[in-house]
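Lab notebook, bench 4. The sequencing result for the construct came back, and we need a structural model before the next group meeting so we can plan mutations. Quick request posted to the team channel:

Model the 3D structure of this chain.
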Amino acid sequence: MAVPIQVVFDCSDPAGLARFWAAALGYEVQPPPPGYDDWDDFLAAQGVPEERRNDASAVVDPEGRGPRIYFQRVPEGKAVKNRVHLDLNVGGGRGTPEDDRRRRVDAEARRLAGLGASVLFEGRTGAFGEYWTVMADPEGNEFCLQ
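Done. Here's the predicted structure in token form:
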């Protein structure tokens, strides 16, 4: 039996990074527990001081297929390249004509740049016809569009 996972990002602004990744992945920011209109109301009811209410956030796949992604505040900033990264498969896969894959990857790179991501390496082509762009989220975490 497979073990369910969640992906965890260390960051300085969990709520901001959660909003970015929700938009990037078609996820949604995890709703608060039943009976609360928003997370601030829930955390206030739990006695969490206002300055600690952005210590964590999460996004979830509204269809329940993908892993939960959790964002936790840490005091240190990102210092080196990620050892693990996400690949966003936006190009359509091997059966998609190369021009269509390129167009889809390039369009998604522009959309995500508009949300605060940055392009690190534009439109690379591999030996087997694969095409990808390396980007960084608003806090510098690398990811690929392919």
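The two ends are 29 Å apart (CA to CA).
Will bring this to the meeting.
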